[in-house]
Amino acid sequence: MSLIILTKSPAFDAFSPETYKKLIRKVFKKNRGPQAVTASVMRGLEAVNYKYKINPNIREIEPTDTIWVNESVEALRWAINFKQENKGARLIAGPNLVVTPDDNDGIIFNENIDIILQPSLWTKKLYETYSNENASKIHIWPAGVVDPYEKNTAPKKENFMIVYQKNAPQEIFETIIRTLNERSIPFLVIKYGSFKHENFLSLLNKACGMIYLSSSESQGLALQEAWMRDVPTLVWDRGFWIHKGIKFEHELISSPYLTSDTGIGFKGKEDAAQKLDLFMEKLHDFKARTYCVENLSDKVTTAKYIDIIRS
Length: 311
Prior knowledge:
The chain is of the alpha/beta class.
């Protein structure tokens, strides 16, 4: 029995939409989200010498194998058919396959799927609103991030903040910028989709804090990368998620793993200045890196992953 990781269907189709999307990502070097999650698991499995096969030939997949599909709905369809033909196979799906359970004809709730991975409490709760009878299948599992300082000395921090503008309303962004200027706090603005990932990591090595402006995050890998580099975060969190007319309310929508060790949240224009002042006052008291090493490193999250797929 082996762990099989499928990021594409073994029945390769050169003309499928997913093949085209993968080619575009490769050309433009877009390797985030689902790909980062898969990479985290592979790093963790290798660290503990746990054997796996990634995208093997169809003939190498045995009826008793455990199959994990994370990046490809086409691969999930193939795996479902494989399990229907081979009842001994075990099928794990997620966390990065569909946005809502209604997507792709409701495939994520297919009866042949044994375990559905969701990256955070709020996404699990969201899925349960669609089908409570599938709740027992859903397990919360966040991916880990690389520890860049595990074998190296952490660089000295500089006196500036990162303002990470993903998709917050302009009024929220302008409020933060105005407040920083009024307090003479040095900062750099980076906007989602307009910077290279390695440049972001380089800035995190130097920054003393980050203000994160995103309407929602299923997990928040960019936040984890900040915490791992000992960068605490002030996070805008409006407390709800909207998608195709669906509104779901929950705490920590924009930062599911924000804690008192990693930073502070604020709701909007009204409390932005107050929470920024509190954040700056506590800036050197946070324990962001310690929290991330203990809870969200590759090794720790992969150990949880192994426990789940063995359950």
